[in-house]
Amino acid sequence: MKLYNKILSMLCILSAMTVASCTKYDNPPPVFEELKDLTTNQRKVMVISIDGLGGTSLEKIAPPQIMALQKNSKFAYNTLKTETGAAGWASMLTGTGYAKHKISNDDFEADQNDDNHQHENITSYRNVLDYVTQYRSVKTAIVTPWEDLRNFVKIADFAPVVSNDVQVKDSTLNILNQSRALGTIIVNFKDVEKAGENGGFNEGNANFKNAVLKTDEYVGNIVNAIKGRENYEKEDWLIIITTNHGGGADETDFGFTMAYNPAFQEFKLQKSGFNPVRFDNKTGRATFHDETGRFDVGENKSFTVQMDVKFNNVPGGYSSFFGKSTNLSGQNITGWQWAHYPGGKWVVTVGGTLNGGSGKQEVSSEEAPGTGVWRNLIMTVEYVNSSTRTLSMYMDGKFQKSINISARKSLNIGEDLRVGHRAGDNDVAGSFSPANLVYYNTALSASTITNNYGLKDLTKHPNYADIIGYWPMDEGTGGMYFGGYPGTPNMSLSGSYVWLNMGDSYPSASTVMPVTSSLSIPTNATDIAALTLYWMNIEILADFGMDGNPYLENFEIEFLKD
């Protein structure tokens, strides 16, 4: 029972870790059995990244060595996209998304803040090998032909200088054979990416397919070397095979993740049901800084914005939750924003104070959107002439109210397009989940809105060509809302927010997917660092700032029981 209590305490700590992190995930109830002593075997981690190999290509090519591991793996073929190749590696190593580490270029230097955020600090996040070195008395290694990546890691006991994948394989085998104290090793293969750049990142490119199969052979060599280690019977290896991105370095595609251990049962990691974010405080938000003027609406532009929203409560005060505006201070505001009022109504506020126009003008919905249900909210702004610019509100395809906002003049403002509480605002923070944000560069007609309410395939919308921004907002993990329409920029998530598993509670415009499991586990590059620390029994503290999900804790019954 002493052993049981020890392991039970460990499980409680892991549960507390999830609650304490900025990005949270729903967890199933714990299952308790007699568990084995974690100190019996030495835990070790091998991470292998095959750069440029997408999940779809891996599944279609089905290389034999990697496929043989799947029956004892937690695996996914649709790991979320990363912004660039370097961004993917930074996320894998630090456990943080681009919104935090700001690394996208091959020199691994953080991108500088734009003019709108120039006074904000850029935080430098430690890499996973740094944490392993601090908390465990083991050796670490990184083997990569990418010099900038090797220099970015800095702290590793073994970092051989290699120039190609054959040398990567040979150096990895040498380290495995010679270092009994090795605890965590990261291996990087690049030939697949090089082959894809000449002819395409798909199985139809013979060079790409052959590179995948050759790299798969190297993976087999490495796995066999692990199993052939002198002390293997006393070691407990987690082998993670993944990629920094699918496709090209600058036009990335979905990746893959395969976490292998002989004790694991086969399980496909994927979203189950609908998985939106819940915002419920003053720090959580999603933003996009519009440097190109894509979402500038000026004095005479027509446009439409629509978003599905599920409010969790009626706020105790004015609660702005979406917009592109300055703070509302008395009668002063420039731009437009949506708010949820104490009486339960949805309110739109506009103003042009900084542009020589009038200040605050508000219009409220006829109906209250209520709580606990999805509502489709639409705002259209139609420019008619210099004295008439009509703002109209619709809820679930039904007209609510309209006003003439021409006296506000230009609504342009160099603020972020944001979902969630605006940084610095003095209103209250509401609790809500958003989904399916669509931005049109035209004012949709009343009949178009009514006739297309609940449309799940935007390509069938009569104004599809007028869309300039679309975000599904159902990634289920990570620190980014990815654009779901060609050319749509990503929105960065920041602050405190919670990814939810709503099961079969879908907005009207979302395609309903089957609820395949009580576990909804979409995968992300940030998970790699979190899984590494979890397997090495290193507590993931809140000040690590990690976004990754150490989802293996959901399966401990498989590998901790006797």
TrEMBL record:
Signal sequence extent: 1-20
Keyword Chloroplast annotated: no
Keywords in alphabetical order: Signal
Pfam families assigned to the protein according to its UniProt record, in alphabetical order: Laminin_G_3 (PF13385), Phosphodiest (PF01663)
Superkingdom field: Bacteria
UniProt entry tagged with the keyword Ubl conjugation: no
Designated name of the protein: DUF4983 domain-containing protein
